[in-house]
Known about the structure:
By secondary structure, the chain is α+β, with helices and mostly antiparallel strands. The protein has helices at residues 31-45, 57-70, 106-116, 133-144, 158-171, 216-226, and strands at 2-3, 18-22, 47-53, 74-83, 91-99, 124-126, 149-155, 179-190, 198-208.
Amino acid sequence: MLQIPACAAPMSKDSTxxxxxxxxxxxxxxxxxxxxxxxSGILESGEVNIVGVGDGIFLACSAxxxxxxxAKVYLNDLFIGSLEAxxxxxxxxxxxxLGQKQLSDYPKLAEQEEKSMQDIEEQTISVSRASTMxxxxxxxxxxxxxxxxxxxxxxxxxxxxxxxxxxxxSEGQISKDxxxxxxxxxxxxxxxxxxxxxxxxxxxxxxxxxxxxYSKRQRDLLKKLEGGH
Length: 229
C-alpha cells in the first residue's frame, strides 16, 4: 500500500487527474521528454500526477524538478509506496501531484523537521550505490534503536534505492517498531563534478508510531496504478 506523509496537502476528492507513469522501461527517455508531457497535462487539465515506478523513480523526480524550475508549476502532494499488480512483483513507487496553485511548502516543512531532530547528522542515512541494501537496512535499524526518527537522503540514481530502503523499513516488518513516512521532500543540489549543473535529491523522514493515512484522491490513484490504468 502507498504510504502518505501526514502533512500532505488536501487534494480534489473527485478525480485523480491526468496520470503520467514513468517506469524502468522508460530509462532511455530524456528528462525533457517527461517535462513536455507534464506541461501538456497542466495546460489541458490544470494538474498532473507523475508517478515514478522502480528504476523510473529518479527520472520522474528529475522531470518534476525541471518542470517546477522553468514553469509556473508547484509540487502539492508527494508520497512513496509499494505497488502490487497481478503477475508483477511488488515495486517501489513515488507519486507527485503538480498544479498551478501552490498548496504545500515542502522546503519549509523539511526545514522544520530538520530543526526538530536531536542530532541530524547521526539521524541521517546517506544512500549511495556503493552501499548494499543489507548494510543500509542495518545502519538504519541501529539509528532507530537510538532515535525515534531518521532521515534518509539520496541524490541522482540513488533516489531509487532510498525509496526502496524507506519502504522496506516501514512495510517490510524488519523494524521492531511501527514506522511511517512523516515527510518526503524533493529538491535539487549542485553536482560535485560540475557545480553549474544540478541533480535531483530527496530526504525521506521516517518516524516511529506513524501509520499511513489516505485521502480519497490518493486511494483512487492507487487503485488505478495497480489496475494498470
